[in-house]
Amino acid sequence: MGRLYAIALLAGGCNFALPGTSAPNDQPEVDAANPPPPGDAPLADAAIPDTLTNSAQTTDHFASADTWLHSQLPNNSFAGDLFVIPDGSPQAVALMQFDLRALAGTVITKVELHIWTDFDPGAQVQVFPLFEGWSESEATFNQRFNGVAWTTAGAAPPSRGATAIATFTPSPEFTEFTVALDTATVAGWVAAPESNFGFAITSVNSDGPKLVSREGAQGTRPLLRITHTP
Fold first, then answer.
1. Greatest C-alpha distance within the chain
2. b vs e for 139-165, b when ≥16 Cβ sit within 10 Å of the residue's Cβ?
3. What's the structural domain count of the chain?
4. Nearest in space to 174 (alpha carbons), one of 124, 210, 203
C-alpha cells in the first residue's frame, strides 16, 4: 500500500497538497527582479494605438461653382461652359468654389487640387484665395453679383489674395494635374465656412490653358482631395 501511495505521489507532481494546505497555483512565479518584457503583457492590457482611434480619412469634394471672366467681354457671364480659362493677354481669370461644410470639426492635414486640361494646355498659372463672394451665374469681369462690382475688376487684389496658394503648369493636353494647395487656407475655410469664397486661377502668360470645368465630362471634373482627422 505504501508503495502505491508513493507512485501516486510522484504522478501528481506539484499538484499534490498535504491535507489542510492549499493547492499551489499552476502559473509560474514572477521574478520581481526580472519582470517579463512588455510584449508578454496580456492582450487585454495592451493600449489601443491612436492611429486606430483617430485614423485619417481622405475624401473628394467636387467643385460646387465655377466660371471665368474675360477682360474684353467685361459684362459677359461664362457660367455653364465646359472649360474655364486663365490667361494673361487678353486677361482672363478662372473662379472655382468647393462646398466643404461636411468637414466641419475635422483637422485638415493635406489638400490636393485635381484638375484636368482639355485639348488646349498652356503655360504656368497661379492660384489665389478669393476674399469676396460671387455668383456662378452672375459673375463677370466687372461684377461679382448683378449690380455689385468687384472691388477691383477681374477679381484682382484686394478682391483676391496677393500671395499664391499654389502654382502649376497645365501642360500637356488631356492630362490630370495634382496640385498641392496651402493647407492652412483650406483649414480656415472649414473652420469658418462664411470665409470660403473659393479661389481664382490666373496667369501672366499669353498662352493660357483651358481647364475642364465642373460641367465637363464625368471623371475629369475638378475636385479637392482632402485628408483629415476627426
1. 118
2. bbbebbeeeeebeebbbbeebbbeeeb
3. 1
4. 210
Domain for residue 103, yes or no? yes
Contact between 201 and 88 (Cβ < 8 Å): no
Q: What does the alpha-carbon distance between residue 197 and residue 98 come to, in Å, rounded to a whole number?
A: 8
8 A C-beta contact, residue 175 and residue 121: yes
pLDDT at 176 over 90: yes
- Amino acid making up residue 134: W
Distance CA 85, CA 91 (A): 10
Nearest to 123 by CA among 206, 220, 222: 206
The CATH number of the domain holding residue 102 is 2.60.120
Q: Within a 10 A sphere around the Cβ of 130, how many other Cβ atoms?
A: 22
Percentage of the chain lying above the pLDDT 70 cut: 77
- Report whether pLDDT(31) > 80: no
Residue 180 lies in a domain: yes
Per-residue pLDDT tens digits for 91-132: 999 999 999 999 999 999 999 999 999 999 999 999 999 999
Q: What Rg value do the Cα atoms of the chain yield, rounded? A: 33
Using CA atoms, how far apart are residues 135 and 143, in angstroms rounded to an integer? 9
Residue 170, domain extent: 57-229
The closest of 102, 117, 129 to 226, measured between CA atoms, is: 102
The full 3-state SS of 119-148, as one line of letters, equals CCCCCCEEEEEECCCCCCCCCCCCEEECCE
**Does residue 202 form part of some domain?**
yes
Is residue 50 domain-resident? no
Q: Where do runs of H (alpha helix) occur along the chain?
A: 2-12, 50-53, 183-191
